[in-house]
Amino acid sequence: MRALAVLLAAGQGTRLGQELPKALVRLRGRSLYEWSESALLACAEVEAIQPVLPAGLLSALDSTEPRRLAPVEGGARRQDSVLRGLEAGVAARPHLEWVLVHDSARCMVEPDDASAVLRAAQATGAALPIVPASDTPKWLAESGGRVERTLERARLGMAQTPQAFRVEVLREALDKAARDGFEGTDCASLVERLGVEVRVCAGRVENFKVTHPDDLPRAEALLARRAGA
Q1: Distance (Å, rounded) from C-alpha 48 to C-alpha 68?
Q2: Which one of 21, 84, 153, 197 is most buried, counting C-beta atoms within 10 A?
Q3: Which pTM does this prediction carry?
Q4: How far is CA 159 from CA 42, 104, 141, 176, in A?
Q5: For the segment 108-137, what is each residue's pLDDT rounded down to a tens digit?
Q6: 3-class DSSP assignment, residue 29
């Protein structure tokens, strides 16, 4: 199984409070994008990386990585960026039947995460990593201010990336979402609307998404521990 990895880095990350787009913020000498890219490239199944970058920053990466395809500019929404990355990556590597989609802000991703989700996707063409919910989830009233009911925590999971799909499944899901005017917060939610069974594999708490300022020292500490510092 060989795969294209679409690496999303087009978001501005305003909640992080940095001047740079989030993916270009550096920790321990590398940007969040570079940490994610190096992990995916160390996955034996990944043949090529398709970067999706912010407008005006297509030359932000060095050109020394031979498996990195020419970057493309992201779209207005996450799924628009995925579509642009998928189209460009498939045009460059049309023989690849599988695609990973990863948010570069999850800079603690490891090569085994990508391998595991690709294995999980083989049965139905779609899979994602899940971590169990740790707190008791409440369903709130639409008007806010009160709880309507308590959800069964044991059946809830939090979605992570990388998510894995057959190329044609993800392409069809993106096309249907565009036709229907549907916007999802991850690729799996688009694929679910096709009726395709999305399989799951074990995620890792450490593979969290850097979103808020407090996440930066947490990620830096984990990267230092990984390096043995």
Answers
A1: 6
A2: 21
A3: 0.94
A4: 23, 15, 23, 21
A5: 999 999 999 999 999 999 999 999 999 999
A6: coil
